Amino acid sequence: MADFYELLGVSRDADAAAIKKSYRKLARELHPDANPDDAAAEAKFKEVAEAYEVLSDPAKRANYDRFGSANGPQGFGGGGDPFGGGGLGDLFDAFFNQGGGGGGQAGPQRGVDLEVVTYLDLEDTVDGAAKDVTVRTAVPCDACDASGAAPGADVSTCGDCGGQGQVRQVRQSILGQMVTTAACPRCRGEGQIVSKPCTDCAGEGRKVEDRTYTVDIPAGVSHGSTLRLTGRGAVGQRGANPGDLYVEIRVNPHAVFRRDGDTLLADLHVTMAQAALGATVPFDAVDGPIEVGVPAGSQSGTVFTIRDRGVPRLRGRGRGALELMLVVDTPTDLSDADAELIRKFAEQRGEDITPPEEGLFSKIKSAFNG
């Protein structure tokens, strides 16, 4: 992954104002509106947006500077893989912990946490939304009611650990005797032995299936945020508590708007006449149409701020602003009559302009007169 500071073209000690200024410049250059059908520019635009999302947030920036990730040290085995980097081939082992581990804790182990990514449109972050996410996870076995035992099977106390789920080992070291505690290898930390395991789940009390959950996305959520769904992770062995499901939010680039915190940024296009003489210009805000008053003599680059038409504040009241940067469009399809009017206007103001191109008849006449 490219370095976020290099993407924005700033030094690692750049302040927030410098980062914001550089991002806005790059966002205007790379925005899909300015580069239609340019996949490379769109990809770079996404990278720049992600870099700004991290470096504009003090906490995320501190994590990035320290760990190379906005989320700090990777808690899911690294590389965004919640199953320890082994991929789907090790999915069963990741859910069911076949190594008999668990750090020596007695009894069935809590299920593992899972992580999934969901993509939103900008409108979803403004209005809130309900999104379905599908995750491959461990679920209770219906055949044995999550007990891991076949019908009529005996469940007895483990003789190796006396039902404690742990065994103690004494070993000699240069410091003397050391006592360590580990999960019992025979019962795998459960303290019980099942005489006949359930054939549907091989005695685990759980199976791997695809599950779909509906996630309520709150208004104001931002790119890179993570939502926690308590108890929606993989279920533990033989009825043990499930882990949690973490949903990472990613927001698709918008064709019109850019986001800076709770502020929405966009361009307001007007004609040369509207900028010179003033006008009331309609604009489709993300939550409905508005009208913007453009004073006479307005220049390109002027920013109009419309309060409370940005993104709702996630942890507060009200909404951010909508900032519209004025762009004066120069006409390119002038008729002869249009061009003549503008030429007379320029002459009246004493402005130097390119003389009109001579027609073919005038060129021939000039040649004969010469």
Describe the structure.
By secondary structure, the protein is of the alpha+beta class. The protein is built from nine helices and 15 strands. It has helices at 4-8, 16-30, 39-55, 58-67, 91-96, 122-127, 272-277, 336-348, 360-369; strands at residues 114-120, 129-140, 155-157, 166-173, 176-183, 192-194, 206-217, 226-229, 245-251, 258-260, 263-271, 279-285, 288-294, 303-306, 322-329. The strands form six sheets. A four-stranded mixed beta sheet has the order 10-11-15-14. Strands 1-9-8 form a three-stranded mixed beta sheet. The chain has a two-stranded antiparallel sheet with strand order 2-7. Strand 10 and strand 11 form a beta hairpin. The longest helix is centred in the first third of the chain and has 17 residues, at 39-55. The chain starts with a helix and ends with a helix. The model is unreliable at 73-94 and 97-106 (pLDDT under 50).
Q: What is the assigned CATH homologous superfamily of the largest domain?
A: Urease metallochaperone UreE, N-terminal domain
The mean pLDDT is: 82
CA-based gyration radius: 32 Å
* Count of domains: 4
Strand content: 25-35%
Output the helix-strand order: HHHHHEHEEEEEEEEEEHEEEEHH
